[in-house]
Please model this.
Amino acid sequence: MRGKKIFAVLIAIVVVAAAAFGALAWRREIPAQQIATNFDPTLIAHGRALAALGNCIACHTVPGGKAFAGGLAVPTPFGTIYSTNITPDPETGIGTWTEAAFGRAMREGVDRKGRHLYPAFPYDHFTLVTDEDNSALYAFLMTREPVKSEPRANELVFPLQFRPFVAAWKLLFLSSGPFQPDLSRDETWNRGAYLARGLGHCGACHTPRNRLGAEDKARRFSGGEAEGWQAYAIDQSSHTPIPWDRESMAFYLRHGWHELHGVSRGPMAEVTGNLSALPDSDIDAIAAYVVDGMGAPDAERKAAADRLRREIGAGRGASSTENGTQVSAAPHEDMPGAAIYAAACATCHESGRPPPYGGLDFRLSTAVNAPNPQNIINVTLFGLPPADGEASPVMPSFAGALSDHQIADLLAYMRARFSGREPWQGVAEMARRTRSGEYKVLVRPAEGIERAPVNVGAED
Model:
């Protein structure tokens, strides 16, 4: 009899818990409405800049497809998520969404029908966006070309197909905005923090995540992973041979390259490409905020950086020439990768031609100095595609020319010669998994470096 009572109590607890969870997860549907598109052109123009900052076009556009029509396959540790259509098509897009419905998606991660959105859409950052900026972004998106396109269903591990589970994730990890300025900091720093933490969602890539896919806020900007690429640490643990300063960071964000840091690639190429829509003051504010978090380099690192600058400036080592003939004062020439490097890399990277169209001196390379070789494996296998319709740095793919073991030999040589850090382990296996697609890397073709539209009028 006692056992039956205990069982009944347990059943009651389960029922109450289920009811409470259901109440927590439930969100009302916001009725569909026909939306007028006679927005103020100034508001639309502001929204265009915000959409560029948020890099919206990159995730919500299939390379070569219609802008913002969704359908891009985004690899995650939990399966593949296909981005949604955010054009104003009334049937497959957001054409019947009110501004309140749009604001709820941004702030709470809930769509018009009341369904919880997966945090691949970084509403944990977008929740910080002000009502005014949300209004401008809404105006911009609602004046894009409507495209009828229904993305594929997400391919997620069980039971994540059940969206109410996302409500529990939010209860643990979502802190609603909007952004609250730090009154101990100046206006520029706070502007940079708002842009970087909010629509810019820098931490979505540059911050490590826990096993449930949430950012570890205690380690903000200490490095993460996105779409099969390593997002480098941009805090005090940065591995850049030359420490960033505010001027170099602003230049890189504006132009997509810097002579002491190389060119942006992978997802970052789209970020820097779209940041061109922002005013210089906003670019400078982001740079000020990020570099402040890196802190000043210690005496040892500063001395090493100064020494490297002198060597680069004097033209010694990897980039030196004598009477027009390459001079190699490099050690490690007995390593198997030395000959591969001489044949495949040295022509560009030791030509003396400066970035962005000349190869970076690898002594300056963050990829060579990074603790994880994934990015340099990606670039070696897939190359660097040119940007759409404009001059840009390019690099050929070596997937057809080098085997996995040859890539491992090449990168071992580069690591030893140009960084002096401990050898990477398991590079051949990482190259195999990357080449085969077992490890999913989002690689866009040449026409796929998406840029925010230039025209901003409601008619475009």
